[in-house]
Amino acid sequence: MLLIMLSQSNKVLVCTQFIVEDSSIMNLFKVNRMKAKRILFIDDEEDIRVLASFCLELETGWDMMLAANGKEGIAIAEAEQPDAILLDAMMPGLDGLQTLAELQNNAKTKHIPTIFITAKAQASDRRRFYAAGAKGVINKPFDALTLASQISGFLGWENSTDA
């Protein structure tokens, strides 16, 4: 069986592939499938979107939707009604706070919880994100192995098997 591992370090996406023949070893890598949540990830960096999407889909079974900017993300949120939105703070055009404000001022999207995933991790930035209505803030670079549990924790999704 082919196992693919992805890791991120300083904006470098690393993919490692190896063959695993022993089924007992594969049990160590058993994929944990959560109930199918629908998550929209809005980030202008394609490698970050791909890494997060791959890891969350593989670990949880969540359906991931991706947008490269705030306007595209708002349109997808209106049409698809995701269970949650992951949002980058620093993007060209509409930044994360502007995107969140538009989502919250829109009757079709104001109920969707939003979590910032950002390199802006200073206390003053976090206070602004929470004051604007964010349900959580995850630092970049994020740990792909704990990303799903962080999201579940911020949103009160009981645990990885009850989400």
Count of extended strands: 7
Q: Which assembly state applies to the chains in this document?
A: single chain
Question: Roughly how many Å is the radius of gyration?
Answer: 16 Å
Q: Find the CATH topology.
A: Rossmann fold
Our count of domains comes out at 1
Structural class: alpha/beta
Largest sheet: 5 strands, parallel
* Biggest β-sheet: strands ordered side by side in the sheet: 4-3-5-6-7
- Low-pLDDT runs of 5+ residues are 6-20, 22-34
Shape: globular
Q: In the CATH classification, which architecture applies? A: 3-Layer(aba) Sandwich
Describe the structure.
This protein is of the alpha/beta class. It has one domain: Response regulator (Rossmann fold). It is 36% helix and 24% strand. The protein contains six helices and seven strands, in the order E-E-H-E-H-E-H-E-H-E-H-E-H. It has a five-stranded parallel beta sheet with strand order 4-3-5-6-7, sandwiched between helices. A two-stranded antiparallel sheet has the order 1-2. The chain is globular and about 30 Å long. About 17% of the residues have low confidence.
